[in-house]
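Sanity check. The docking grid for adenosine-5'-triphosphate depends on where the pocket ends up, so I'm generating a full predicted complex first rather than guessing from homology. Inputs follow.
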Amino acid sequence: MIKLENVTMQYKASSRPALKDLSFEIDKGEFAFLIGPSGSGKSTFFRLLLKEDRPTSGDIWLGEFHVNKLKAREVPKLRQSIGCVFQDFRLLQKKTVAENVAFALEVIGRPRSTIQRVVPEVLEYVGLEGKHDRMPNELSGGEMQRVAIARAIVNRPLVLLADEPTGNLDPETSEEIVDVLDRVNRRGTTVIMATHDRHIVDAMRRRVLEFDNGQLVRNDQQGVYGIG
Ligand SMILES: Nc1ncnc2c1ncn2[C@@H]1O[C@H](COP(=O)(O)OP(=O)(O)OP(=O)(O)O)[C@@H](O)[C@H]1O
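Predicted complex below; grid placement will be based on this.
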């Protein structure tokens, strides 16, 4: 599903590569944690998958897409196959919960009838029934992240990239958010979650990819956070 072969990423402004000769695969339907110290290359990996940057060398595949060879006109299709959630939620502050989710479908030209059908479904799926008309500033952090997840999955992406999705949440709320991601994964979406939260990694016992200095230093099938 996702395959990297000898991927190196050297930013022009940097003296050392952000990713060094990286090779690994993540299978369809996996839940994988990406761990490693700040600056080890986790966000760079996400940027390369989204084709927001080009690797200096090496090959990247995601589903049917040969990402580093993709033509510019095919990039929107790639990005529609990838949902993203972030630590800081990134909701549209002037839109309601339902409008935030609907907007993700409007921008890709989905018909209004589809939007009216699927938005309530996905909001119920993430546990936000009864909150459709709230504004983001009327939500808790956990609820904001549920909206962000709803928006990321409403178009049924192949892959969900979660970049420290629990970084701003207390431990109990973090667990609830990981439960939602787990359900999304069990529905068939491949989930990759970058995190510094050892409790979550240890509780889930899923694939653990550990980055250090742009290299893959550990790739465990049912891993733990480890001593790092
Ligand atoms: N646009 C850029 N230009 C130059 N160097 C960059 C750029 N983006 C990232 N880097 C460098 O690449 C390396 C990897 O950074 P990256 O953001 O991928 O790490 P990370 O593992 O996601 O860190 P964090 O856990 O803090 O999010 C770092 O040394 C960083 O300074």
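Relevant for the grid: Helices lie at 42-49, 75-80, 97-106, 112-125, 141-153, 171-186, 198-204.
Also worth noting: The first helix runs from residue 42 to 49.
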